[in-house]
Amino acid sequence: SLSAATSAVWLAAYGLFVLSQNSMVLSAAIFITLIGLIIYLHFVKIDQESLLVIGSLGIQVTSSYASGKESTTFIEMSRVKDVVINEAIHMQKVIYYLCILLRDPGDPQGVSEVVPLFQSSKPRLDCLIEVYKSCQEILEQRKTAPQSS
What we know:
Blueprint: H1 2-20, H2 24-43, E1 46-54, E2 58-65, E3 70-76, E4 80-90, E5 93-103, E6 111-116, H3 125-144
Antiparallel strand pairs: 1-2, 2-3, 4-5, 5-6
Helix pairs in contact: 1-2
């Protein structure tokens, strides 16, 4: 999509340059392309995703962008119902992804929200299974640990 957008800007700029013979059109195309690239690197391109699960506190999901910016989301453990591997069919392919199921405050047996993880990195199923097993161990320890009041 980045290549397509860049190509479209450059083709439009070249067409306008040929019609107007004004070099400012090409300068504007360079400027627009650079601004678009900076926006893409700062808000779209995710380099790394991480998951930190602490049984007594919650789950922290961190995304690191190509520009160095980080986005962190924290989910309290009391809101977590379960962690599951879900599958989806996209085009002619089955895609597996890890999800956090959040409790419905009104219905203890229900799920209020599904939070997908690792949407940018799209790890293979064998990697997801390892993360899933680790999460399940922590969730199981939390269930068997005595609850403090």
